[in-house]
């Protein structure tokens, strides 16, 4: 056969270009859809008993010296052996005993798209945190409804989020300081906001006993949704008004109270422990608690997203129990300022106490019109970060992001079976 004439070839090229353009248009639409990832397999190798810990550590108000995104960029990429070490974990049981479990990781090449390349943007100073933009969700009508109802309080003073009917995701530093377990981790409990009559007086009243009638309030639910999702853009004036009047009302309503549930066991990745990760410990500031009893509250699924900044709004949300508003659930949202594959830096207003909150975003389920919220990270807290590895520290609010690997690990902890965790 001779050469193919140009006049035949040309339309094919044009067609190909057209197809590419069409595909690109589709991907624009896909930006609003949860991507589907094949995740690596994290499998248990073996479990050995360890001596019981001392439970001598005390909570740290602030973490410092974290090797930040730029600092981390200079570290060598962890090898498979390293990763298997970091993802191996300790389990601490209710009775104070603990075990160590080593893991193997398979299918790591599924996630080559995850590089340690991070986009960088202009730096902010702390003052740029600006006015406090947190919302107190004190009205039971909202705080005991999804998505706020997934937020829980950890007895060591942190927050957490329900990721299964009886598992809570929180920050590792709420349980362990890197060297030992916190004093309060021995009798760890999780508090779920009580949904009781708004008229009940105080915490100890009879309101606690009888299940309060939940108000129907369809309208209220929508309001929350609107507040949650659109609070930032447009209509500031109207929103501000609504917020103020709600706050005023909340003063009159009863103090929030919790229903406490004991924790059966807690799992922490070895990567969090001192001397294991060499600059990457902040990436492993997460832990999973298993409750003795399922609290019958809807949980939020985990999700994996390659870049938050590239999302249409680039905005994250989280709710927790900030120290300065005791007992109240505090909700906020903000845009991510900087991200690496493992960390998210942002200037969401947050006080200690909100550490461990689940950071979520809302996207569409593939093939569906409905929006779905998923947890993509764990709020770690305010940190002084070593930006360039030269000892110069800068402050950020940091969240640990759920990578495909971490998804695999957390999913395995929750399900106890890695075959159920092959796709995020
Ligand atoms: C503590 O609890 C774990 C898990 O339930 C159990 O395997 C272990 O035997 C218990 N140890 C003691 C000393 O009771
Ligand atoms: C990461 O950055 C390097 C150098 O800037 C580049 O060569 C590489 O292609 C990047 N990787 C990805 C996955 O973007």
Number of helices: 7
Share in β-strands = 25-35%
Ions, cofactors, ligands: which are bound? 2-acetamido-2-deoxy-beta-D-glucopyranose
Distance, first to last CA = 49 Å
CATH architecture heading? Beta Barrel
Q: What does the model show?
A:
The structure is a single chain. Helices cover 20% and strands 29% of the residues. It is an alpha+beta fold and 424 residues long. The protein has one domain: Beta Barrel (Thrombin, subunit H), CATH 2.40.10.120. The radius of gyration is 23 Å and the shape is globular. It starts with 5 loop residues before the first helix and ends in a 9-residue tail after the last helix. 41% of the residues are buried. The structure holds 2-acetamido-2-deoxy-beta-D-glucopyranose (2 copies). One of its GO terms (molecular function) is serine-type endopeptidase activity. One of its GO terms (biological process) is proteolysis. InterPro entries: Glutamyl_endopeptidase (IPR050966), Peptidase_S1_PA (IPR009003), Peptidase_S1_PA_chymotrypsin (IPR043504), Trypsin_dom (IPR001254), TRYPSIN_HIS (IPR018114). This is Inactive serine protease 35. One of its GO terms (cellular component) is extracellular region.
């Amino acid at each position: 056969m001779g050469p193919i004439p140009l006049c035949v070839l040309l339309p094919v090229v044009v067609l190909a270009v057209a197809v590419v353009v069409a595909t690109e248009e589709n991907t624009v639409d896909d930006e609003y859809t949860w991507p589907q990832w094949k995740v690596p397999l994290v499998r248990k190798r073996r479990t050995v008993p360890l001596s019981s810990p001392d439970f001598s550590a005390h909570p740290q108000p602030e973490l410092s010296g974290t090797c930040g995104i730029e600092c981390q960029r200079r570290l060598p990429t962890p090898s498979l052996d390293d990763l298997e070490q970091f993802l191996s974990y300790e389990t601490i049981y209710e009775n104070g005993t603990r075990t160590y479990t080593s893991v193997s990781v398979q299918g790591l090449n599924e996630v080559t798209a995850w590089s340690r390349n991070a986009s960088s943007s202009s730096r902010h100073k702390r003052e740029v945190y600006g006015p406090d933009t947190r919302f107190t969700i004190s009205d039971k009508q909202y705080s005991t409804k999804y998505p706020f109802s997934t937020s829980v309080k950890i007895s060591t003073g942190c927050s957490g989020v329900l990721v299964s009917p009886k598992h809570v995701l929180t920050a590792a530093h709420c349980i362990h300081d890197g060297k030992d377990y916190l004093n309060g981790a021995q009798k760890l409990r999780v508090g779920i906001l009580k949904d009781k009559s708004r008229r009940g007086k105080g915490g100890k009243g009879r309101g606690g006993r009888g299940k309060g009638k939940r108000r129907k309030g369809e309208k209220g639910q929508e309001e929350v949704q609107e507040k949650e999702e659109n609070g930032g853009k447009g209509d500031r004036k109207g929103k501000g008004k609504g917020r103020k009047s709600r706050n005023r009302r909340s003063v009159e309503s009863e103090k929030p109270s919790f229903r406490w549930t004991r924790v059966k066991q807690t799992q922490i990745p070895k990567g969090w422990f001192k001397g294991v990760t060499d600059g990457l410990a902040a990436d492993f500031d997460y832990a999973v608690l298993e409750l003795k009893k399922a609290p019958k509250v809807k949980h939020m699924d985990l999700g994996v997203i390659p870049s938050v900044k590239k999302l249409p709004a680039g905005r994250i949300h989280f709710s927790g129990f900030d120290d300065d508003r005791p007992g109240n659930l505090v909700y906020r949202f903000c845009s991510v300022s900087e991200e690496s594959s493992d960390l998210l830096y942002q200037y969401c207003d947050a006080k200690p106490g909100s550490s461990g909150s689940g950071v979520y975003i809302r996207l569409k389920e593939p093939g569906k019109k409905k929006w779905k919220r998923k947890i993509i990270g764990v709020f770690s807290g305010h940190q002084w970060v070593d930006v360039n590895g030269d000892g110069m520290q800068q402050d950020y609010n940091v969240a640990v992001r759920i990578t495909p690997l971490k998804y695999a690990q957390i999913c395995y902890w929750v399900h106890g079976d890695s075959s159920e965790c092959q796709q995020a």
